[in-house]
Amino acid sequence: xxxxxIYKDVMSSFPSGVTVVTTLGPDGGxxxxxxxxxxxxxxxxxxxxxxxxxxSDTYPILRNSQRFAIHLLAAxxxxxxxxxxxxxxxxxxxxxxxxxxxxxxLLSNATAIIECELWREYDGGDHxxxxxxxxxxILPDQxxxxxxxxxxxxxxxxxxx
Length: 161
Known about the structure:
This protein is mostly beta strands. The protein has a single domain (4-156), classed as Pnp Oxidase, Chain A. It has helices at 4-11, 59-65, 78-85; strands at residues 16-17, 19-24, 30-35, 38-42, 47-50, 67-72, 97-99, 105-107, 112-124, 127-138, 147-150, 153-156. A hairpin with a 5-residue loop joins strand 7 and strand 8 (105-107). The longest helix is centred in the N-terminal third of the chain and has 8 residues, at 4-11. The mean pLDDT is 93.
């Protein structure tokens, strides 16, 4: 049997990007979740995946909405990362966002945004594996420094030369 604490320590040794996945809730408000378990999956068709915890209050809303936006966070977006990692309602209180033409709530200042429609869902132990078909891609006008997650900390990806 794998000891959970050691498993978390080992997995946190792998630096990853940080995303916030947003959608509209049943009341029309923004809901979302912070996820480091994100990946490109396929070029043709264009597919991406993220893995929310089944225990998350946001998971069933994301699944039922059938569409969502995945924000690749910028280093300066720690407020967004922590807000959407928390529990409860009104996670987006004080966070700047606007509605996309496709009906997804979009956060400002991300390094990139991927709008999706739900393509498939698979079981992944205590997490769901949500696969999204890409419907729109958004890049900022100027390059933005991405956020990384490593050993339980959020930070900026240093310039690579």
